[in-house]
Amino acid sequence: MATTSSRTQRTDPLTLEVVELIGTVVARYHEEYDAAAGKHALTGAQARVLGLLSLEPLPMRRIAQKLKCEPSNITGIIDRLEARGLVERRPDPADRRVKLAAPTEEGLTVARSLRESLNFAREPLAELSREERLSLRGLLRRMVGEDAGLLADPATPAGYD
Amino acid sequence: MATTSSRTQRTDPLTLEVVELIGTVVARYHEEYDAAAGKHALTGAQARVLGLLSLEPLPMRRIAQKLKCEPSNITGIIDRLEARGLVERRPDPADRRVKLAAPTEEGLTVARSLRESLNFAREPLAELSREERLSLRGLLRRMVGEDAGLLADPATPAGYD
DNA sequence: TATTGTTATACTCTATAACTATA
DNA sequence: TATAGTTATAGAGTATAACAATA
Questions:
Q1: ∠ CA(B37), CA(B40), CA(B45), 5° rounding?
Q2: Nearest Cβ partner for A139 among B6, B136, B158
Q3: pLDDT recorded at residue B156
Q4: Is B4 a domain residue?
Q5: CA separation for the pair A14, B114 (Å, rounded)
Q6: What is the CATH number of the domain that holds B125?
Q7: How many domains does chain B have?
Q8: InterPro entries recorded for this chain (chains A, B) (predicted)?
Q9: Looking at CA atoms only, how far is residue A112 from chain B in angstroms?
Q10: Which residue from B101, B160, B148, B122 is spatially nearest to A29, judged by alpha carbons?
Q11: Is A88 within the bounds of a domain?
């Protein structure tokens, strides 16, 4: 025991400030995300799904799993994206029960635009030098508990694509 | 120019990974937040408002400003919190147009419980030493652009109380 | 006149349950 | 029978517009 225990001191000012800063980052993240989606007249959920599908077409069921919501909700979201010509439903040759949701050409374009105008932290991160970003990566990795780089699904970086 | 420009290289792997990690943190943040709210059968918005009011009673208008939504939405949220006996509407002696939303005793208790079970990052941060948390704070501060500690509203740390 | 809170309306997201068509 | 997607339904959050009470 070198200095004051950092595990028992649950409300020390330093930890609280870091938590607060993370809250700020989270808020900033959403502001950017919603603003980017809004530019294309998309809701957050729609933008998220479109971003997912731009990586690879997915069965409805898989989308629900990625979004952590009930499959019945996906129907409506895809309906709206389809009505706007950004997504289309394709039959799955292997299983005639499943429908694959895939982005159209325009959908891909919008997804790309979204990703570019989005990419939160690109701006904020620009403030940091390479060394600092390396340091930040290390700290975040430890926070996230990603010791070796084991993500449940390689295609799913996080909740928000 | 020491190494490769870090501002023009917009898609370098390091930056992308950090962005990805931030996305993971954001997702984790919400999981914890929603789980904590769910334990009390509260929605995210309700928990957020209750948390705000636990710091100080606020006019409906102010709540909308803090949540960055239209004032008309607050009516319903406060209605539901009031129906559950967690919040009450008080007249403002100074201006009879405004109604102050204030937590009840039970509301304060729930808010406290929420804050305790919540406090995201307390666990993850426990993994970091004091020095590492100091380092993380510094990096986040720079990301957030909080050079001196100038927040628009001292009572509002972030989007999520 | 301007402002505060509310109501009315409409849309989206969400969960639950029941239905259909496949498997 | 089990599964994929859908439909129907209900609750909640959101924005817009119009309203009553007060300033």
A1: 40
A2: B136
A3: 39
A4: no
A5: 21
A6: 1.10.10.10
A7: 1
A8: HTH_MarR-typ, MarR/SlyA-like, Tscrpt_reg_MarR-type_CS, WH-like_DNA-bd_sf, WH_DNA-bd_sf
A9: 13
A10: B160
A11: yes
